[in-house]
């Protein structure tokens, strides 16, 4: 069994859910709204460091410059029910993907993938402003590609 061609809901996961995943959540949600695709988007972290906290102020600031609002988002940790609820669970990097694989029931692992497909989304947390801009560039490009794929899904192979 594989993930649906067009998911009804997507979860984006990084470590603390304060930089990469909330940024990706807001950007993907915006792209889906513009494309008039009704797909639920949420984000979470594999760790519980920041549960209940707003995204990193640098993420908020850089996203706001591009028209994305992160202020209302709050960090949460991945739960067991996420693996059942979400059709597609996209990890920021291999470390978080491996944590998800360990936590995920075997019959749900087909839902797991890297957000960028074949490369990690770099963590800007310990870096400078340019890291947050790089994350936004990568996330905007990937969100556009995902939306385009979902607008024109390939025919399933029999």
Describe this structure in words.
Helix content is 40%, strand content 12%. It has 158 residues and is α/β, with parallel strands linked by helices. The chain has one domain (14-151): Response regulator (Rossmann fold). It has five helices and four strands, in the order E-H-E-H-H-E-H-E-H.
Give the structure's gist in a few sentences.
This protein is α/β, with parallel strands linked by helices. The chain has helices at residues 20-34, 57-65, 80-85, 94-103, 129-151; strands spanning 9-14, 40-45, 88-91, 112-114.
Features:
single chain, 158 residues, alpha/beta, Rossmann fold, 4-stranded parallel beta sheet, 5 helices, 4 strands, globular
CATH homologous superfamily (4th level) name? Response regulator
Radius of gyration, Cα only, in angstroms? Answer: 15 Å
Number of helices: 5
How many structural domains can be distinguished in the coordinates? 1
CATH structural fold name: Rossmann fold
Percentage of residues in helical conformation: 25-40%
| CATH class division | Alpha Beta
Largest β-sheet summary: 4 strands, parallel
Q: Which band does the percent of strand residues land in?
A: 5-15%
Outline? globular
Task: Give the SSE string.
Answer: EHEHHEHEH
- Report mean pLDDT, rounded to a whole number: 94
Distance between the termini: 13 Å
Count of strand segments: 4
What class, by secondary structure content?
alpha/beta
Identify the strand order in the major beta sheet: 2-1-3-4
Corresponding CATH architecture: 3-Layer(aba) Sandwich
Q: Oligomeric state of the chains?
A: single chain
Query: Which parts are unreliable, with pLDDT below 50 for 5 consecutive residues or more?
Result: none
